[in-house]
Amino acid sequence: MKGSVRDLPGANRATELAGIFAPRQSRSFKERLIGATLMCCALASALVTVGVVVVLLSESINFFRQVPLVDYLTDTRWEPMFQDKRFGVLPLLSGSFMVAAGAAVVALPLGLLAAIYLSEYAHERTRKIVKPVLEILAGIPTVVYGYFALTFVTPALRGVFPQTDIFNAASASIVVGIMILPTVSSLSEDALRAVPTALREGAYGLGATRLEVALRVAVPAALSGITASFILAISRAIGETMAVTIAAGNLPNLTVDPLESIQTMTAYMVQVSRGDTPQGTVVYQTLFAVGMTLFLITLAMNVLSQKVMRHFREEYQ
């Protein structure tokens, strides 16, 4: 077309204007439709979260109307199903933290070393093979890990420590550590690969070895992502259910010996939620009190993770 739209005859001008604006209106409608769909998805997620918190909070308030909060936090016995009921959550908390700590001892160093190897040492072809294989560990059902602990890890432990209980915290810690290993290695490796190449080239230009570049340049530069992967993995370890239910047992036991049977918060929730507990009783409400405790712990760890990431990111800016 030659000349401006103003110079066109009336009919041609209308056709030209329709050709210009109709596609824009169509695109605008599609953009609004996509935006509305995405907003609905976000609202649905937010509403589900709010609904879960409201249910947990309402039932927990009913529980704490019957059980003092001080007794819940300080009593060392958890016996809600006995005639003389005791509601001290400390045995469940210690069991959960013991399993999480043991899993961290297994997963964090191994995961970080695997991430350093994949990021700094492995050939690209090797990385493309090893990383997916490593991530397969995350796809194995947790119940399989539980029976693996019961039939392989526990007999191996009893060969070294004969006093080990059949159900014990050490076996649960080992298998949960294997479970969260892909989380640590994959996220840490992503963080290491995101470090600018110029930092590595500068270090090599100053005569640094590959190990020095990995440990003194890449790891400190990716520390925010590595720390976030640690906290995320530990959060998953605290919330793990089936493996610890099978491997660690169902005995609320306030102990520091990992070879003894324990019970975690999630294992207790599985034990009570089998349908035998009448709704509205205080035993039923313990489900929500323990669930709220677990929710608050996980939330605190997520907030801590965000603060750590922000802190280290500001240092490198």
Keywords summarizing the entry:
mainly alpha, two-stranded antiparallel ribbon, 12 helices, disordered N terminus
Outline the structure in words.
The chain is mainly α. Helices cover 76% and strands 1% of the residues. Strands 1-2 form a two-stranded antiparallel ribbon. Helix 3 packs antiparallel against helix 9. The chain is globular, with a radius of gyration of 27 Å. Residues 1-6 have low confidence and may be disordered.
Strand and helix map with partners:
Layout: H1 10-66, H2 69-74, E1 78-79, E2 86-87, H3 90-121, H4 124-136, H5 142-160, H6 169-193, H7 197-205, H8 210-221, H9 223-239, H10 242-248, H11 265-272, H12 282-316
Antiparallel strand pairs: 1-2
Helix pairs in contact: 1-12, 3-6, 3-9, 4-6, 5-6, 5-10, 6-9, 6-10, 7-8, 9-12, 11-12
TL;DR of this structure?
A two-stranded antiparallel ribbon has the order 1-2.
- First-residue to last-residue Cα separation: 52 Å
Q: Rg to the nearest angstrom? A: 27 Å
Envelope shape: globular
Physical arrangement of strands within the biggest beta sheet: 1-2
Determine the fraction of residues in helical runs and give it as a percent range.
over 70%
Q: What is the number of E strands?
A: 2
Largest sheet properties: 2 strands, antiparallel
Taking all residues together, what is the mean pLDDT?
Answer: 85
**Structural class assignment:** mainly alpha
String of helices and strands: HHEEHHHHHHHHHH
Note poorly predicted spans: 1-6
Strand percent estimate: under 5%
How many H/I helical runs?
Answer: 12
